[in-house]
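Bench notes, afternoon.
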Amino acid sequence: MTQQINPMPGAKRSLLPLLFFVALFLGTGLYLHQQDVAYAFYQLPGHVAIIPALILAILLHKAPLQQSIDVMIKGAGNSNIITMCIIYLLAGAFASVASATGGVDAAVNAGLSLVPSAWLLPGLFIIAALVSTAMGTSMGTIGALAPIAVGLANQAGLEQALVAGVLLSGAMFGDNLSIISDTTIASTRTQGAQMADKFRENIYIALPAAALTLLLYIVLANDGAPVQTDSVNWSAVLPYAAILLLAVMGLNVFIVLLLGIVLAALQGAVFADYAIANLGKDIASGFASVQEIFLLAMLVSALSEFIKQQGGLSWIAAKIQRLADSLKLAGNKAQQLAIAALAFISNLCIANNTVAIVLSGDVAKTLAQQHHISAKRSASLLDIFACISQGLVPYGAQALLLGASFGISPWQVVTQSYYCLILMLVALLMILSRRAS
């Protein structure tokens, strides 16, 4: 028998600051987008937009100011959030050092050197998928590959929107799966899952979807001009391969990322004339690159603490639970669908998959624990459906960057995001066909 969740009186009111944050962030982005402002949804950064919402939460808390501030600090200082933020710093440092030592260029050239011209579309998808899995960032992957892909598309006479969609598809594969991705870090920390366990759970869904997408691109591929690439520095690829292998083996993520930084620096010093004296500066640059998501994660957690203490999260969980119960599916499949919908809809509002996961993490964890859904599966569902949503919103950073790079509309980009659509279908089929988690 399902255990019912009983929200506190006035719980709905505690959701007003969250709705205010979403309205402010989304509303500003929509308005600026109508004014043809570039990267409209990023003109008001999330970690700034949330400040008025926190002020509203303090006013609604109806407690002495110091007590409200204590609640805010408690939320921002949540051990899971602080752990997640430190991992963000290390992941940013690794990405920065690996890039400075030639890792990104090496990964791109290694992929392009293996791609026959007739297989340009499936080849670009594989390259983007491998690079994004290694780097842990879809934006970094798109930034590295888009200039190359534009030239290849022109050279081979391929449709610009299709090539942009290939890059977006491959980039979202790694964004969802990589063990150093913001989304992986957020989903595992909020659900209390191990990264290696979440990776294994996730790959059973991501690989079939990627294989189907690859088959589609093979069908769509045609003969193209020969691809020109630079020589490949294979040693620069090794740090990426090492951290992926160590993480899958279950080594502590802090050790994995620290070893990755050391390996990237050493290979650069030995094989690429990298000056070790620049290591500190490159690590600091990596720290700075994750500053926004670091601050936003802490502030979102602070806002969530107000909502949690006033019963807002319980109210959301109760509504979702009733909806899930009405579906009458066997086991906990309805609750798994509820977690998926929660992540998907949250990201539609925020257009940032990491923030969507942090926002919905507590409710998802409550549903998972009450309905015996394993932590690795709830983490996987959160990550998958937040990334699917991110790959389909034309106002997301990925679509905006690709649209600007290829000189096309972001809407044209997301309509060619075949991997995200296929991933959604595969994930839904997996939920409905697999035994209860």
